[in-house]
Amino acid sequence: MKALKHLFDNNLEWAQAIQKEDPGFFESLSKQQSPEYLWIGCSDSRVPANEIINLPPGEVFVHRNIANVVVHTDLNCLSVIQFAVDILKIKHIIICGHYGCSGVRAALDDEEHGLVDNWLRHVKDVIRFNEDSFEGMTHQQQLDHLCELNVKEQVTNICNTTIIKNAWKNGRDLSIHGWIYNIENGILKELVPCISSTEESLK
Ligand code: CO
Q1: Counting Cβ atoms within 10 Å, is residue 3 exposed (0-12), middle (13-18) or buried (19+)?
Q2: Catalytic residues
Q3: d(CA 51, ligand 1 centre) in Å
Q4: Which of 55, 60, 124, 128 is the most buried (most CB within 10 A)?
Q5: Tens-digit pLDDT profile for the chain (203 aa)?
Q6: In whole angstroms, what is the distance from residue 90 CA to residue 175 CA?
Q7: CA–CA separation, 110 vs 130, rounded Å?
């Protein structure tokens, strides 16, 4: 008896439905991937990259971590960005946060969750950089505000990586987008107007 049999059953049903709709889909996709988009989002189970933008396998290169953070020394995230930009020749990088983010809430409320607290220090830094802007807000407003500020901060971080700076210096057609997703209605919102050069980058 296979462990997690229901998931294998789901998988078979899914693969067969796609084959029925588009015979040869997997065969042609297996030869190469050429996605136009890199998605950097939260690990939250309610925020699945492909589903939200309704794109099939092959269209989105994805990196997810808790609270969709781009850290200058995170070799994992930097490697994804470098591979996406230099090898896959991605045209758009979407940093997508979401309202109601548990990681952002934990940073705001200073809750203790163990090892992950060290990761969330990066979100706490976002509070520190913008301390005055939280004054006079309710807790809910502060949470929404921090979810938004966190996206903007990560957009700034990615624009400052050597990978993106060099790509722009070399004349690459590459845009960075800062979005936020509403888990209550499934709707995306643009937070940061599209950035396509070092000059346009958030300081
Ligand atoms: Co989250």
Answers
A1: exposed
A2: 42, 44, 46, 98, 101
A3: 16
A4: 60
A5: 689 999 999 999 999 999 999 999 999 999 988 999 999 999 999 999 999 999 999 999 999 999 999 999 999 999 999 999 999 999 999 999 999 999 999 999 988 999 999 999 999 999 999 999 999 999 999 999 999 999 999 999 999 999 999 999 999 999 999 999 999 999 999 999 999 999 998 66
A6: 9
A7: 16
Global pTM reads 0.95
Ligand 1 centroid, distance to 183 Cα (angstroms): 10
Å from CA of 41 to ligand 1 middle:
8
* CA pair distance 68, 104, nearest whole angstrom: 10
Residue 203 tokens read as: 């300081």
In angstroms, what is the span from residue 96 Cα to ligand 1's centroid?
10
Domains of the chain: 37-201 (3.40.1050.10)
Place of tokens 């758009």: 92
Q: Which residues contact 23 (CB under 8 A, 6 or more apart)?
A: none
Expressed in angstroms and rounded, the spacing between residue 186 Cα and the centre of ligand 1 is: 14
Measured between alpha carbons, how far is 38 from 77 in angstroms, rounded to an integer?
11
